[in-house]
Design brief:
By secondary structure, this protein is of the alpha/beta class. The chain is globular and about 80 Å long.
Amino acid sequence: MAPRIAKLSPRTIKGVLFDLDGTCVDSEFLSPLAWAAVLREIGVKSLSADSGRKKLEDALAAPELRGANASTIADHLLQHFNISYEDDPSHLVKRKRALAVDMVVNGTVDLKPLWFKGLRNSIRQLEKSLGPENVGLCTSNLRPIVHATVEAGQLGDAFLGGRTVQEDVICPTSGLPQIKPKPDLYLLALEKINLPPKVVVAFEDSVVGVTSAKKAGVGTVLGVLNREDNNTVEAREVEAALQAAGADEVFDTTVAAIDWCLASVGGTPQDNNSFSKLMEEKEAVVRSYFDGVNKKDPNMMSSCFADKVELRDMCGPSKGKPRYASSKDMADRCMEFLAAHPDCKVEFEHPPMCDREGKWVWCHWVESGTWSGQSLGVTPNNTLLDVGGHTRFLLETQEDGSQKIIKQVVYRTLSEWELSI
């Protein structure tokens, strides 16, 4: 499947508003934990077993609940578990929220690992570019959970553009929160950040969030997927749903969406020094990787990769199926090849170059040498190495501000040594 390459033109950006759950943190598991606790309180006894937990997960994953509010979910669970409940289901919603707050505030759930990798540094970069008072938060979650989550992400002093939460939009008549997909949260968030809506960007991972931002008139709404594999059928369906709801663009990760914003701040890519610098940094990392290959330096090679890398070999036995490896694994893989071809040399037919959006770095290369070394137990036959290919590298900003390769897509011919193993 084709990678997502941003086609959105750069624009004037003065402020940003972040959703929290699913956009900044992978906290989707908290809701099932809280619902399970509620159901146990009203007599559902099977949830401790694996089959019971699976039944609850399946119930919450029902397509009709995608983007549904908590009251709708409560009704659905009562029917799914065939529970006779005489009180108003809204009582269950309130109890679920109270239990979720208790789990977070009392430390039952460790929130620090839930922040998406590299995001804290990217948010700090946005603060430097836009001013910390122009970076805000807009979430349907509860204030105690938001506070604990932000503190866990070491961003307690961030989001000075305002933290708009569920308690801020309680209807005085009904007493109910006017949360997403209603526009109230974003309307208030825009008021707090005090900027024209057309120069504000919202980051959202859900249809209800995108809908809320669009209804409030936010100038640019960016969808984010943040899945371990963004090429599954489910991810593609979510991408299509976000676009149908009005997202101006959908990115693989929130960090990638922020990179686009950083590139847009101050003008178009052609006259934006920060964008040009970002492209140069990414190209330099890819060059360093190939330099490491030619120098047979595994440390140099591994330093170019993130801790976890997705590899797609479009012409090998895996036929493009995604595989995942550590930075060390990527270097070890190269060293096995170099052991078989000790005189291998890589040269560029087209050197590393960023695409126009500054997202992917691509290059054409050829390898020359001789299969004269033994590797992986295969005896060499001294045939000449004549291999060429095209590789695309996806890089992402890390916690320390560096660029690392997170995905590698290779189209190439195979050496006789590779064919023999």
